[in-house]
Model the fold of this input.
Amino acid sequence: MCKPSPRGAVGTGMTPRRPTALLQTLLLSLALATALGCARDARPTAQDPGIVTFDTELGHAQLLADQPGEVLARLRVGTRELGGGERPPLNLALVVDTSGSMMGEAIDTAREATRELLGLLRDGDRVSVTVFHSRAELLLESTVVGDADLDELRERLDAMEARGTTDLAGGLQTGLAQVRTHMTSETIDRVVLLGDGVPNDPSNVIPLAQSAGQQSIAITALGLGLEYDETLMGQIAQVSRGHFEYVEEPARVASVFRQEILRLDRLVGRGAVLALQPGPGVEILEVVGQQTPGGAGGLSLQLGDLSEGERREVLVRLSTPARRSGALVELLDATLAFQDQVAQAGTLQRTAFLGARANDDALEVQASRNQGVHEAAASLRAAEATLQAIQMVRTGQVQAAAALLDRVESEMEMRDEAYRQQVESVRRFRRSLPSADDGAPAAAPAMEESLREAHDESMDALGY
Done:
């Protein structure tokens, strides 16, 4: 761990002499280096290709002495450029909405997109196809590509028609069962859900997605259709550590499928887990942007699979104990563990220690503030609050949503240009809401457009 020695002589029995100006500068530099955290990345070896990176920083490099406080910790997982290599076999369930609400262009798009996806799979991949309307129907039991009679399946797909109500839970459960039956240590396990996300009974859908996430079965939720429910589809992706996208132009569904398969082709790590252990007297108050309980004990966060070019960011708000000026506050040990998919090196780890010096000079503490960390946290909070506001609008609580968005906008004092688009999206959403709350969800075209735009921006900010 990166712990500097305390100020003054150590173990000499001598009275410490006052440091020279040069020594003071060196001590301050050492303290700041420690405060920013010490992340340990592996150099490329035969056992560890060094593709996955891990770095950390704090919202304040110094903490105010002699009183409890708070500090933000930012932990970022990234990937370096990947060389050649074959991806592991895919264990895929395709779950398609064929209910009456998909009638017209949506069902035509679903049919063509499904045919397109089948053509992207390789020999050795597994695929099953489930459709759901008034009930779930298994069109193709999980079969190895190359063995399946895809011509017969295509004929069944051509016969798909939109009818009945929407048993989304049944369809999802059927698809997950197909994946679970054929999971191995080598397979990439996925469900691709295509539909409008408006089920007969939504109560069982999120628990199914949560269970999938706990088993590292990520769900890619693709929203489609005129009566599309972005809130439910987004939640499915979130709790399963999958991906979400609303496909506004039906013709784009096939290209989205291609992008998803390409992302799986560039998989570098599977089942990434970030373990956080706070130091003495430190508590995890929240994982910003996530509904994750904190506390003084350790915490494990499921990050899912890692593909080339992806970055995952976790911001943690910590409470800190009172420490004397000059003391090192041991904030957090962080360990990232994942299954290597580049060199097949098994479970690899990255570790980091974060600590900060206590300082009784309030001006120096303020000067150590890292604006980028605070803006990143504000972006995540705004994204989470915006999703809550969207859900409020969908349930008729328009004025409550407006009040929440007003608060979000007032708190988003962003300097970084990277966050400006998100700020503008929140503002457009807020301006689109009606001035009076009539107790029913607003449905003006302008509001619908800004609502979906704000939802997509928020999901992007949260990493989905």
Q: What stands out?
A: The chain has three domains: 47-82+267-363, 90-265, 373-461. The chain is about 35% helix and 25% strand. Residues 1-35, 437-442 have pLDDT under 50 and may be disordered.
